[in-house]
Amino acid sequence: MKSLERILLVIGGFFLIVAIAYSVWTTVDQGQPEWVGVVALTLLFVFSGFIAFYLWFERKPFRVKILPEDRLDADVDEAEFELGQFSPWSWWPILLAATVGFAMFGMAVGIWPAFFVAPLVLWGIIGWSFEYYRGHLKH
C-alpha cells in the first residue's frame, strides 16, 4: 500500500503541474482559461490525492503486519490467492468488445444502429457468462 500511495502522489503531482501549465497556456493563447480542461485536470489531481490520503490513512493498521508488496524480501506466493480465472482460448471477449464498440459507434452516429447490435451484445454477455456450463469446458 505504501508503494501505491507514493505512485498516486507522484501522479497527483504530475496532474497538478499539467493543470497549471494548461491553464497558463490557454490563458496566454486565448485570453482566458479553457475551463473544462482546467477543471478536469484539477479534479484528476484532487481525486488522486483523495485515494493517496485514504491509502495513507488505512496503512496505519498494517504497520504491525506489513503486506508482501511492501517488503523487498517477499516472495510471489506470499501475496493474495487467485480471485478469479482467465481463459485465454475464449472468443467471447473479442465478440463482446466488437459488438459493444459497434454499439457505441452507432450511438455516436445515431441511435438506430445500436438497436441492431443490441442482440449481439446480449448474446456475447450470455455466452461469456455461461461458457463453462457447456461443452468440454463444463465443470
Relevant terms:
mainly alpha, single chain, 65% helix, 139 residues, flat, 0% strand, 2 domains, 4 helices, cell membrane
Would you write up a description of this structure?
The model has no long low-confidence stretch (mean pLDDT 86). The chain is mainly α and 139 residues long. Helices cover 65% and strands 0% of the residues. The chain is flat. It folds into 2 domains: 2-74; 92-137, no CATH class.
Secondary-structure map with pairings?
Layout: H1 2-30, H2 35-59, H3 92-109, H4 112-129
Task: Give a brief rundown of this model.
This protein has helices at 2-30, 35-59, 92-109, 112-129.
Distance between the termini: 36 Å
Mean pLDDT across residues: 86
Order of helices and strands: HHHH
Strand content: under 5%
* Alpha-beta classification: mainly alpha
Unreliable residue stretches: none
Query: Percent helix among the residues?
Result: 55-70%
What's the total helix number? 4
Task: Report the sheet with the most strands, covering strand number, pairing sense and barrel closure.
Answer: none
Quick one: how many beta strands? 0
Shape: flat
What is the total number of structural domains?
2
What is the gyration radius calculated from CA atoms? Answer: 23 Å
Pfam family, one: Cyt_c_ox_IV
Protein name: Cytochrome c oxidase polypeptide 4
Subunit structure: Associates with subunits I, II and III to form cytochrome c oxidase.
Subcellular location: Cell membrane
